[in-house]
Structure formats: C-alpha cells, structure tokens
Amino acid sequence: MYEFHQTAVDLAPATAHDLPGIVAIQNHTAATSHARFATRPLGMEERREWFAQFSESGLYRMLVARRGSQVLGYACSQIYRDQEAFRETVEVSIGLATGSRGQGLGTSLYRALFGLLADEPIHAVLAGIALPNDASVALHRRFGFSDVGTFCEYAVKNGQYISSLWMQRLQSDLL
Predict the structure, then answer these.
(1) What pTM value is reported for the model?
(2) What DSSP designation does 14 have?
(3) What is the pLDDT of the chain when averaged over all its residues?
(4) What range defines the domain where residue 53 resides?
(5) How many domains does one find in the chain?
(6) In a domain, 90, yes or no
(7) Three-class SS of residue 70?
(8) Where are the strands (E) in 21-123, listed by range?
C-alpha cells in the first residue's frame, strides 16, 4: 500500500479489468506528447494481444497503481525481441496518468516491479526514452540504469523527428 494524496493506492498485478485504464493512459500520453510513438488512438482489441504477454510470475509482468478501480499508472517488463538469444533481456516501461506524475508513484511502481524481478533469470533490463524527457531519464538513473546510446531522429510523429535515449542496467551490477 502506498500513500498518495492522503489516500491509499494499491500496487498490484494488472488484470484484464485494468486494461481500459492502461489504454486510456497510453492514448492520452500519445495524444499529448512524444513519449509514446502511437500516431492514432489504440483500441482495446489491438491492446489485448500485447497485454496477454504479462503474467503474475516470470519475466514479463505488469503492475498497476489503483485507487479503488481507477488506474493511476502502470509499470511493466516486456519482451525486448522475440528471439531466443534475448531470453534474459527485458524492456521496461512506465506510464502515469497526468494527475499522478511527479508524486513518487513511478518510483513506487518501479521499486515493486524490480523487487518482483530480482530472482528471475534476467541479465539485462533495457529502457528506451523519447527525448526530451528529463523526469524519465532521472527515474531510470535512480534505479541504476546507465546510458547506452541515442537513436537520433529515428522516428517521426506530427511532422517532428524524435530521438530516443536507450539505457540499461545489468542485474549483476545490482547484487
């Protein structure tokens, strides 16, 4: 349990009931920033397949922060690439509702997620962050991520080129 705005917030594995809230956060972020590369709103059906990769155990997990039935944010570890050579690598992502940012909720979600992943056979954890995004870069650095490199102007959205900083942490560095 996490105290947020004087009311309790539960951090728990995401369920299918959370998917509409997760998709709403993703669509709002995509519509109002460059942090998500989607160029149109995503529908529930197309996100169900993506959501199916997550479970309550193993490498691919998703946690949500809820107040009652309202999803305030999520953090997940997901497949980096669908090839056997990357079986010990995960990519992490985090999304917060607008009113939940800058309150420490992202830190709480990542702390819980990385705690769950600590005993999993993961060697490398990766994160790609569309730039500029100082808050996300700072969050990842707090959790031991270091810069690997930048893909310069490799995506285009709303007529603007977007660069991404890629960061990683090795699980062995944190033991």
Answers:
(1) 0.92
(2) -
(3) 93
(4) 2-123
(5) 1
(6) yes
(7) strand
(8) 62-67, 70-79, 89-96
